[in-house]
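Proteins fold reproducibly. Take a tokenised chain:

. . .
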Amino acid sequence: MDETLKSTEAPVERLVSVEEVAERLGIKVHTLYLWRTKGKGPRAVRVGKYLRYRWMDVLAWEESQMDLSVA
């Protein structure tokens, strides 16, 4: 494989499950599904029939919630 191509590839971030996000946030899985239907909560993507999250989106959402609580 060409080494220059290898060095320019973006790292692939593992998508995390609804259960992992719910555990991190200390909420129920059902709450995440409700938030998604209402357009709230961290940004998520559908992968087939599964809902998945990127940690960076979860962390960004957490940060935005802290900013709101201070205001």
